[in-house]
Sequence to fold (190 residues):
Amino acid sequence: MLIIFIGPPGSGKGTQAERLCQRLGITHLSTGDMLRAAIAAETALGLEAADYIQRGELVPDQLVVEMVGQVLDQPPSANGCLLDGFPRSLPQAEALDRLLESQQAGITRVLELEVDQPELIERLLARQRTDDTLETIENRLQVFQNQTSPLLDYYRQRGLLATVSGSGTVEQVEDRIQAALPGQQNDDQD
Ligand code: B4P
Fold:
């Protein structure tokens, strides 16, 4: 099983990914968490990624693809995994396709989490991570619009996309995600 979460910053990808992975017994792979760990450990990747994250820009595709490729080369769990925040650009999505093709694996479902912009800004300002300043948040939202949202059509055309509202309580969103997964009663693919 391979599930992908796509959504603007603050839409709750990390929050929901953690819960879903626990429920399904699959591995949670968050490129944001991996990059922050690299920054904390001051690795070469971390030193290069830090400025991009601080400005709210995407870390260059090549670096992120290499980082994810290394993990997916050794399947992290027999049950599968959830990619949280990857891919975030068309070149990343194409690189993932190539990687999966070489492993003869496929994508189970791509879940889009949709939340209005004012609510996103409110959530992120409340979180107070170092890249959660108003200026950076506005840039991240723009980057999502320009570079990540084209992926929605990319996956919609392949019949893989399900869109779920990320507003409401964490439990309400969790129930909607559960219903949007294959094999669920309200299987409602876009
Ligand atoms: P990420 O770590 O992926 O972070 P995010 O998109 O900001 O957050 P997420 O959507 O996971 O929100 P969360 O659950 O935490 O990316 C950070 C940066 O890393 C990017 O800007 C980029 O620079 C870099 N990066 C990562 N992946 C990359 C890639 N593939 N390519 C290039 N660069 C990459 O929720 C946010 C807040 O909302 C939390 O405080 C949470 O408690 C709250 N919340 C969640 N659900 C809620 C709900 N239902 N109601 C109210 N609040 C809720």
Observations:
- The longest helix spans residues 134-148.
- Residues 186-190 have pLDDT under 50 and may be disordered.
- The first strand starts at residue 2 and ends at 6.
